[in-house]
């Protein structure tokens, strides 16, 4: 099992930011817990099935039969991206 470094930052407006150091993926939430939950989702979308970072997001989408130009909302991506 590999280790994962996450940084939590309390912003001036009371919001929380969570940063996955390895991938540089950032999320925000009203609470620390919410920021971490959103970060988990964001990292899952950013990484491939084996947990490694997707280096070329466009190529990854195309490899999975998805036209990047048609993606307007990441929540509409098929399960393969989640």
From TrEMBL:
Record-linked InterPro entries: DUF7387
Disordered, as annotated region: 63-82
Pfam families (alphabetical): DUF7387
This protein's name: HicB_like antitoxin of toxin-antitoxin system
Species name: Halorientalis persicus
Lineage: Archaea, Methanobacteriati, Methanobacteriota, Stenosarchaea group, Halobacteria
